[in-house]
Write a structure and sequence with these properties.
single chain, alpha/beta, Rossmann fold, Alpha-Beta Plaits, 2 domains, 9 helices
Length: 221
């Protein structure tokens, strides 16, 4: 399903940044917050921005929240409001509910409520930064699940001119190169004969351990 309309509840630093980026990418975005000042700041940026209490069921009904493809609960420090909002969104039949978790326990509660995706902004950013510090070739690092990761790695000099068959990451490390971003374009699902050049960006998928082993090999080369 291609998302078209997003609702972002909570326009703090995380929520406003997320809402702004979705808008910049051409999507319709409704921003909701109790704080008039936060709503005012985003009113000219988003498709719609309203002052409302997301823990009130009638309020959510009145703004037609169930008609949105995806609603993100980005409420900052009020865990109770976050949980109540998530419950109401699920009860109202919102197709996809995403919520920011402030702690592991908060995330577990949201998961049990049936929230479709839990986001841990601080934790996830910490993981990314740590990996980037350890491996200077790592450009981005996203955990797809508890076990699987997708990473963007800049090809170091030691890989210059090698084919994927020579590199053979699947046999050596268990991970797969699913795309190569070159200066003149992106190769999707590259074949064994595709050549890697220095500073090409390899998009790699595998388990966390497999990606780590591949990173360590590059650092040691």
């Amino acid at each position: 399903m291609k998302m078209k309309q997003f609702g972002v509840i909570g326009l703090g630093r995380f929520g406003s940044s997320l809402a702004r980026e979705l808008t910049n990418n051409g999507f319709e975005v409704l921003g909701v917050d109790r704080d008039e000042e936060a709503v005012s700041e985003m009113s000219e940026v988003l498709t719609h921005a309203i002052v409302a209490d997301s823990t009130d069921e009638e309020t959510l009904r009145s703004i037609g929240i169930r008609n949105f493809d995806c609603v993100i609960v980005a409420i900052g420090d009020d865990i109770q409001a976050s949980i109540m909002t998530a419950i109401l969104l699920k009860d109202l039949g919102v197709e996809m509910v995403v919520a920011k978790a402030l702690s592991v326990l908060h995330g577990k509660v949201l998961e049990r409520l049936g929230v479709d995706r839990i986001i841990y902004p601080e934790r996830d950013m910490g993981i990314r930064v740590a990996h980037q510090l350890v491996n200077p070739n790592l450009l981005d690092y996203i955990e797809l699940s508890k076990d699987y990761t997708i990473a963007e790695i800049s090809a170091p000099k030691c890989l210059n001119g090698k084919t994927l068959e020579e590199l053979n990451p699947r046999a050596k490390y268990g991970c797969s190169v699913v795309a190569i971003n070159k200066k003149d374009g992106v190769i999707i699902a590259p074949t064994a004969t595709d050549v890697i050049n220095e500073r090409d960006v390899m998009v790699i998928i595998g388990t966390n351990k497999q990606i780590e082993s591949f990173e360590e090999e590059l650092v040691g080369s």
